[in-house]
Amino acid sequence: MEIKNICCIGAGYVGGPTMSVIADRCPDIYVNVVDKNEERINLWNDKNLENLPIYEPGLDKIISRCRGKNLFFSTDIIKNISEADAIFISVNTPTKKRGLGAGQASDLKWVEACAREVAKYAKGYTIVIEKSTLPVKTAEVIKTILEASKSETEDTKSTFDVLSNPEFLAEGSAIKDLEEPDRVLIGGENKNAIYALTNVYKKWVPEEKILHTNIWSSELAKLTANAFLAQRISSINSIGAICEATGADVREVARAIGSDNRIGSKFLDSGPGFGGSCFKKDILNLVYLSNYFGLKEVGDFWEGVVKLNNWHQHRISKLIIKKLFGTVSGKKIHILGFAFKANTNDTRESSAINICKDLLEEGAILYIHDPKVNSLQISNDLGKSENLQLKSLTLHDDFNFEGEWVFSENLNDGFINADAVVVLTEWAEYSNINWIERAKSMRPPAWVFDARSIINPKEIKNANLNFWRIGDGAAM
Ligand code: UDX
Ligand code: ADP
């Protein structure tokens, strides 16, 4: 069988870029991305490419090449399901907030809703592909729903195969990751279905990079990859704390261990802790799975990675407070970066959320800058609206504004009268700040806290500012 018409349910950070690249590389395949969120679909269809609902370098170019030709964004879920040979499920699977497995297991209600819709409206033979990050054994849930819903289906002759095809793209480099993947993983039982999907990827991915496994290995491999990556970050951040205590430098330690081929140099940057929609959620899924199967020690091992990350984020806020004479009440702090990493507008699980909340709790006045995250998103994440009066505030220690924040439109304005600057996201523009100039408007003895190691310590020294940077036991 040949896949000629794809429907992807979910036009988010995974579905949007993945389908755009498939459409770009397979001009003979119709790719329809559907979502129940009309506002999101309208943004995907917006003529002004600046308004796309997600920011991802290179995405706008692909959209302008393919949209309206073989790539379509729509809310017409039923029609697109019924016309598709292959349906990708790319909906959100957040951690459950209540009930059994709350705080650990993924909430599969959206996946389940999709499976029911597919069961009802699909026609003929359809390959259903899990794309969202899902707990192991979700394919079984999808299969069971597809089979059990036969009595409600519009086409009584419809048949299905379920494949797992997890996405390994990282935000900020999604297009490159999709165009030149390290591997494509396809798990399933039916060889014909596996080969049909393989033929789609073969249009641009070398065949030796397309791995076939059974369905459970594919699901588990996705969780494991994310758990290993997150574990590296907690490991290096834990060593960073030892460096700060002992006078060592985490960058030097990372370089030294990274040149061991067995360890490798990637993913060893100590920072403010990992964020993003996947790492924490996937590890908690592993923890839940381990405990479910009575493997408590295994669950505890992986849970330690998340605990260390939480501890590390709060360690940074405590440290800022300590350096500012034990209180940040009424002090102006300029936060540089709110996204969980550079080159994305995504703030899910961003370390900036916990760190800013801690500082606000202590009474700090925050001016928050980010080149791609908007103030509404920050309000939602902090659970607190910005105070626009702060835009014209020039006085120090205005205790009426303790615990308030405002969005800093212009990068340079946030430095005026600031007691401290905290770099939380590694946006390129933050490494080009003229510190001598900016220091002139800050209130001495002002501090720069660099949680991303992107600032040249010499420039800070020349500007007569106090400096702390992550994992640097020898910082001034
Ligand atoms: C991750 C996986 O990399 C990707 O394969 C998977 O499909 C989804 O989850 P993503 O969350 O987009 O991707 O970003 P990633 O680049 O992995 O970064 C995650 C977090 O770790 C970010 O907060 C980042 O700043 C942090 N990080 C990363 C570090 O602190 N140090 C590093 O060396 C690398
Ligand atoms: P991800 O990072 O996994 O892509 P997002 O939250 O960015 O997650 O996107 C998931 C999208 O899936 C959202 O836009 C949401 O509206 C959509 N969605 C969830 N459930 C359904 C459904 N049953 N039908 C259509 N779209 C859905």
User: How can the largest sheet be summarized?
Assistant: 6 strands, parallel
CATH superfamily of the largest domain: NAD(P)-binding Rossmann-like Domain
**Count of DSSP-assigned helices:** 16
By CATH, the architecture of the largest domain is named 3-Layer(aba) Sandwich
Could you explain the architecture of this structure?
It is a single chain. The protein has 2 domains: 5-213, NAD(P)-binding Rossmann-like Domain (Rossmann fold, 3-Layer(aba) Sandwich), CATH 3.40.50.720; 309-475, 3-Layer(aba) Sandwich (Rossmann fold), CATH 3.40.50.720. It has 16 helices and 14 strands. Helices cover 40% and strands 13% of the residues. With 476 residues, it is α/β, with parallel strands linked by helices. The mean pLDDT is 94. Helix 1 (15-25) packs across helix 3 (59-66), helix 9 crosses helix 11 (279-292) and helix 9 runs parallel beside helix 12 (296-323). The longest helix is centred in the middle third of the chain and has 32 residues, at 215-246. Helix 13 links the parallel strand 9 and strand 10. The strands form 3 sheets. It has a 6-stranded parallel β-sheet with strand order 3-2-1-4-5-6, sandwiched between helices. It has a 6-stranded parallel β-sheet with strand order 11-10-9-12-13-14. Strands 7-8 form a two-stranded parallel sheet. The protein has helices at 15-25, 38-44, 59-66, 77-83, 109-121, 138-148, 174-179, 191-201, 215-246, 250-258, 279-292, 296-323, 351-361, 375-382, 435-441, 457-462; strands at 5-9, 30-34, 71-74, 86-89, 125-130, 159-164, 184-187, 210-213, 332-336, 365-369, 405-407, 420-423, 447-450, 466-469. The chain is globular, with a radius of gyration of 24 Å. The chain binds uridine-5'-diphosphate-xylopyranose and adenosine-5'-diphosphate (ADP). Uridine-5'-diphosphate-xylopyranose binds at residues 167-171, 226, 229, 233, 267-269, 271, 274-276, 278-279, 340-341.
